[in-house]
C-alpha cells in the first residue's frame, strides 16, 4: 500500500482529520466517553509528533444531529444551529483530552463564542499549526443547511491541506453498509466521480465535489482502532483512498 501515501506529498505534511461525533461515545449510546477521547488524543499526538501539521473537525451526532431534529418537526435552521453547538462541546472535550497529555490546542468556532474559544480566523489557524499546535474547527461553516463534512472540506481547502482523513467506525468505503450487509465489500480506491455516481454516502455530495475541485484526496479509515491513524499515515493501514485517478 506504499502508493497510498503519495497523495500526501513531501514532508512536512498538513492534514485535516474529520471525526464523527458518534465515535466519541465509545461503547455508550449518547454523550462523550472520556477514555475514548483520550485514546483519540494519543493517536493525534503521535501524528503531530511525526512532523505532521494537524487540524480537526468533529461532528456533533453524539449529542444532537440537526437533520434528525428537523425530521421530528423542528425548524431546520434552528436544528442545525443546535447541532453546531454540539460540535463546540465535542471540540472542547477533545481539546481537554489533548492538553491533558501535553499537546497545545486551539479551538476555533465559526460561530463567535469568545468566552470559550477563538473565532475562526484563517491566517491565525495556519500560524497555530506552523507552531505545532493542533487546531480544532467547530460549528461547521457557521450556517445552517451545511453538514460538518462540508465544514471539513471547506477548512481542508482553506488550510491548504494535503489530504482529508475521515475517521469512521468502519475501515473504509463499502459497496453497502457492512453493519447491515455482511457480504458488502470494501473499496481500496475510488475516484470522486465514482463516489458521487454510486451515491456511496461516505460524505455529502458538496463535500466530495469541493475536494475534487481542490484536488485534495479523501482517506476513509476506522478511527476506533488504536494506532490506525499512524498506520494510514505510514501507508500501511487499511483504508479507502478517494482521488481523481
From TrEMBL:
Catalyzed chemical reaction(s): UMP + ATP = UDP + ADP
Binding residues for ATP: 18-21, 61, 65, 168, 174, 177
First-listed, main subcellular location of the protein, grouped into a coarse class: cytoplasm
Family in the record: Belongs to the UMP kinase family.
Mechanisms controlling activity: Inhibited by UTP.
Highest rank taxon of the organism: Bacteria
Localization annotation: Cytoplasm
PANTHER family for this protein: URIDYLATE KINASE (PTHR42833), URIDYLATE KINASE PUMPKIN, CHLOROPLASTIC (PTHR42833:SF4)
Domain Aspartate/glutamate/uridylate kinase: 14-222
Pathway where this protein functions: Pyrimidine metabolism; CTP biosynthesis via de novo pathway; UDP from UMP (UMPK route): step 1/1
Name of the featured protein: Uridylate kinase
Molecular-function annotations in GO: kinase activity
Entry-linked Pfam families: AA_kinase (PF00696)
CDD domains: AAK_UMPK-PyrH-Ec
Binding site for UMP: 60, 80, 141-148
